[in-house]
What does this fold into?
Amino acid sequence: MNLRVSKSLIGWIFILLATILISLFYFYPMLQAFILSFKSGMGASLQFVGLDNYIRLFNDPVALIAIRNTFIYLIFQVPLMIIIAMFFSVLLNSPNLKFKGFFRTAIFLPSVISLVAYSVIFKYLFSTDGLVNEFLLSISIISEPIEWLMDPFWAKVVIIIAITWRWTGYNMIFYLAGLQNVDHSVYEAARIDGANVVQQFFYITIPMLKPIILFTAITSTIGTLQLFDEPMNITMGGPGNETLTISQYIYNLSFEYTPDFGYAAAVSFIIVVLTVIFSIIQFKLGGERD
Amino acid sequence: MNKLKLFSTYFILSIATLVSLFPFLWMLISMTNKSVDVSNGRLLPGTHLIENLKSLFENYNVGSALYNSFFIAIVATILCLIVSSLAGYGFEIYRSKGKDIVFNILLLSLMIPFAALMVPLFRFFGGVSQTIPFLGINTLFAVILPYVTTAFFVFLFRQNTKMFTRELIEAGRIDGLSELGIFIHIYMPSMKNTFAAAGIISFMNNWNNFLWPLVILQSPDVQTIPLLISNLGSGYSPDFGIIYTAIVIGTIPTALVFFFLQKYFVEGMSGSVKG
It folds into this structure.
């Protein structure tokens, strides 16, 4: 009996440090943010203002633009990337293909570079006198340079292209791992039954990969909700606030403008609520397949 | 027909490879060129590499940023491995109802986005600055502490501990090892792959981290590599040769980690998908 009690105690000691650290650096600040979201004031002098911050939030045009932009990135970038990643993984899984390892490594390589580093590279590649314009001009796709980063539409396109470049290979690895578990004889049987490549893709590949597609879709969604490094380094949120994201707006409210920590905390709860919703979906769907 | 299919597969994959690799080639070429040549889109290597490096080290203090980034990434990774492996082991081996409840609560922290934490954390470290200056704002430890462990790493270690042979623990007890002794001498050596995978993820995350260092390192004297690159990139008259040199320097450590430990890297990723 005594031995069992002491063993259980040792178990608690093993988990103590991680539990304290996660409580101190996640749960405690989360609680603080919640309390803070009901206060307002410049810098350190904060007063309790009830729901004022949340009311202000729904009447704040910049906050609404930031939410809209974040959703634009989500709706276009996540599906685009998943489709490209799946397409590449199916190509890489073709039986007679040579240099598979080379192609896989090359397409995965963007996942290695830091978000800041690739953002700065993309900023220069897409500048008005940058290489992308030069290339498009030289093959006559465009007749005059596109002002990528000055135009509200094209600036968003650049952000979407950049994120897709950085994360497609990363997601592709998950699909490749999933495809390796699919028996080639399944495709063989489908071919004998007269299914063409497209039918095989929709009736075999997609159903087989469904759990992985959901996993990558939700992790990418949660990642995009927190998008910060790219708009900060490629466009600074501009032109105007046309590429501003929620995270970036929270940062600006806290550290760029006259600090209003209370309101910043209220804005951050948009991301919290959305993240919780998507995480619950993931847990629910993840639970089903186990 | 089949030949055509194979040919188009090669064609598409070659284009994808070119698009994926081009920014890397471009930064490697540009680090050897003068700023003027870079902005003219010169696609051939030049002879300006030494000058770029010299200027970066002399005028932009890249040495100190490198030191800070290595210090942060290495210390955070070591602490992360110790704290998370102890917890993953504790939750799985000494499993009890109470601990399972704690574990599930810890998992909830995965839903908390960093954007919501940065203001309270900044204020927290501001308060710490008053009493313990070496842990406060503008210190490397303030960068490290929130990232020492996350529920993700605890989860990763717990999942992999499920595959650990429990008979080894009994054998260790019979041999007279203490519980911690069993962890150090039996568990750790047999979980090398998990440690490698977790270590790589932690190192990469900490090396590349941008938002939290940007918030907590307010002084221009204390920079990390991503902060330095971001600052160089947002200048009004950027020197492109120098910027690309800084980007290459900042990418080399993670690229090396990737090329030498690729196997563990992919393992760690698929370890996380099992959840």
